[in-house]
Structures are given as C-alpha cells and as structure tokens.
Amino acid sequence: MKKIDSFINIFRDLSHSGHSLSGKVRSNELTIALKEEIEKLVNRIGKEDYPIHEVIEEIEDQLSQHIQSKALIIRTLRKFTDISPYLLIHIKKEKTEEYRLKTLKIGNTSYYEGHFFSHKTLERYCNWEQPRLDYFEANVYEKYIIQCFDLFNRFFDQLDKLCLDYDLDIIKIQEENGILVWIRDLHQLLGYGYDKKLGEITSFPYQYPNLETKINSREIDTEQKPNEKSNRVERLDQLFEQTSKFLAVMQILVSEKLIEPNTYIWKDTTKGNKAFLAAIIKDLHAKGYYKDKKPPENDTIELICRNTFQWKIGIDTIKRAKPSGFDLSFIPPASTV
User: Fold this and answer.
1) What is the total count of domains within the chain?
2) For residue range 145-177, what is the model confidence (pLDDT) as tens digits?
3) What is the pTM of this model?
C-alpha cells in the first residue's frame, strides 16, 4: 500500500534526532546533511496538514473488500514496530544506564540514547518533566520528534475508529499476537458515536491490564495469565461502575483545564494542586461514581495519581487532602451524569 508506506517514511529520522539530542554526535558532512533534511521535513509538516485521512481511506478500501481483514491490520501494526518505541511514552519503562549510555528499559528490551532522548523530549513537551518544552522554543530535532508524536497518535486514533466500524479491536489484536505498538486513548472514542462500542472494550489507556509487555516481541512477559483478573486497582477507570461516567469525568477535568485532553496528564501546577487532585479522587467516591462502597485506600490513590495522571503525590499529602477543603462543585453527582 503506497500511502501507508509513504506515511511510514516520515518517521525515518527519529533515530538520528534522538541521538543528536544526546550531544554526543560529532558534526560532519553526513550529520549536517541529515539536519538539513530534518529541517525541510519539519517545515513541510508544519506548513501542511498531513493527509492522514488518505492513508486511512487506503486501508478502508482493503477492509471493505474483506481481504483478510485481521491480517491486514496485523501487517499495518507491524510496520510501526521500529517506530513505536520512540513515541509510546505511556508504556511502563525504566530509565537507567548501560555501557555508559542513557538507557530506556521496556520489559526485557534495552533501548539506548536515540530512544531515551526521544522520550525525554516528549515527556517535557507533555509536562511530565521540567522544564516544560514549548514547541516554538524547541530546536529542529525536538520539533521533528513532537511532530512525529502528533502524527503517530492522530493516525492511530483514526485507525482505531475505522477498525471498530469493522468490528475489529486493535488492542485485542495486539494482545493475541504478542505485539504492542499503540495504546488506546478511550477519551478519543467518546463523542464520535462509539459510546455503545465502549462496553465491548476491555483495555484502558496507558497499559494493558495485568500485563508486563515487551515491545517488538512476539511474546508477552507476564506474571499471570492474560485472562486472569487482578484485584489491585492502579488506574482511576478501574474504580468506576461505568466507563461512560469515567470518560464524562475526564471531560469535566479537561474543561476545567486540569488535565491534558488526550493523555489525561495533570497540568495544574498552582500551589496545593497535589492535595487538590487527591481530594477530587476522594470526592468522586462520595458522589457515587465508584462501584465499591468502601473509599479507596491512600496507597491506591497514590498509584492512581501516578498511573492515570502521571503525577507523583506523597502519601502524607494524600492523607491530609479533604474534599471539604476545596470547591469541587464543578463535579456533579454520578446520578446526574
């Protein structure tokens, strides 16, 4: 498929950009030429809205002919196996150092400085790490990585919707085939006519439930079988009685400018914001959103803050946080949502 292959080609300089940000790349004729190539690519992507819809239409043409639909999606996903480790920043990972190189360890696989500095750039851009990186203040390599991140997520959000229209679940297909190149953002499905489909979806943002996953491998390392359920709550969505209400609450937090719209990353940095987040999680229980009558424990709230909102909050702050200490009237009772 020509259009998908052309789209894949856009990501070809991720490795060089990441390595360049390490500061260890010596300037020579090749690196100067690559920098000029990336500058041209950044300018082209910046001036033009890349026609992702044309790539999606090419895939839809194949799906509409019922030509091995699942096999087609598997082949499409595998085209991104070398790309996704640079951009899939929500995946569970460990930052370390091997052979005197900055290392990103995902599952049993070690990725080195190109991947490490790509993640670092995007984490700063998404305000996970400080100082926050503004796109317009970024250098050419950082801008290119950010643009790739945007294109990557926009493509997969559209592909996810297309596949659901054909009763294909990308998350399930990845799980069955032991690969992981993309993690669904459920929020992107709400408001696009996919509310009824949500009941059929078992995977939530950021991580597969109960799985330790290794990218680019046909095997999934796991401490338990995939169909075994864990009672441990690590994400906010696991507390909710209904997925639709979880998504409605997240939309409220987006509207209040407390979290980022696509990633749910906590963005409020005003004084007392950590206690504010903990109070919100407690208040949601009081207002009837959770399936368990017992309020979540403090250590559970700590995990939720880290895994759902990418925000580290100390256990003492969580213990002291009280909903009554904040104006939380913007969150309505669950019965009215």
Assistant:
1) 2
2) 999 998 999 899 899 989 988 888 888 898 888
3) 0.63
